[in-house]
Amino acid sequence: ETGVTQTPRHLVMGMTNKKSLKCEQHLGHNAMYWYKQSAKKPLELMFVYSLEERVENNSVPSRFSPECPNSSHLFLHLHTLQPEDSALYLCASSSTQIAGTNEQFFGPGTRLTVL
Amino acid sequence: QQQVKQSPQSLIVQKGGISIINCAYENTAFDYFPWYQQFPGKGPALLIAIRPDVSEKKEGRFTISFNKSAKQFSLHIMDSQPGDSATYFCAASMNSGGYQKVTFGTGTKLQVIP
Q1: What is the distance in angstroms between the Cα of A73 and the nearest Cα belonging to chain B?
Q2: Residue A98 forms contact with B (CB below 8 Å)
Q3: Which of A15, A47, A107, B21 could form a disulfide with A91 if both were Cys (CB 3.0 to 4.6 A apart)?
Q4: Coil, helix or strand at residue B82
Q5: Residues of chain A with pLDDT under 70
Q6: Would an 8 Å CB–CB cutoff place A94 in contact with chain B?
Q7: Per-residue pLDDT reduced to its tens digit, B13-55
Q8: Per-residue CA distances from B56 to A27, A103, B50, B102 (Å)
Q9: Mapping DSSP to helix (H, G, I), strand (E, B) and coil, where does residue B13 land?
């Protein structure tokens, strides 16, 4: 596997379910991000982990809970979601250690539908 | 002040034509301006990027024009091809506490017709 992978690619869940999204990066990066992509809206930054420490939480509801056990893995735990949470959830990674490198590498996303 | 405004929302261009997408920003602390390309079912991928000390950057058929005083930048796709049909996002970023804080535009859906 290369780049940034995400599983599952598609997820349908009820409002009372608990599920987790997984992201893995194979690029040796030290920062990882969760974004929410909804139709006709800019990508919304949800969480950032730098060196496995959460450095940003953009007023995301507590029904979304991130976890970063190491620099290669990132999870988003979901519980009691609402239908408006249906969206494409994107994971990205970047390196903070290479001067002049600003690029974020994105995974293919998880398409989440909340019924 | 963190917003990046992008236009048009959608664009239809004939094959061989020029596609132009415009963006504007407010925050002068941004120091990196990337354009991302996203195909259906895929995540965004970096297409081309520019820093504010440069007014133009060209990579193949893709050119970024940057106007620092007007706080505007644009993407030009020359000789547009059907394979260029995708959604394009402009963005502006800055280093924030050891990571890149990126603000994205709303996206432009480009369709290149044969």
Answers
A1: 17
A2: no
A3: A107
A4: helix
A5: 1, 97-101
A6: yes
A7: 999 999 999 999 999 999 999 999 999 989 999 999 999 999 9
A8: 29, 19, 8, 21
A9: strand
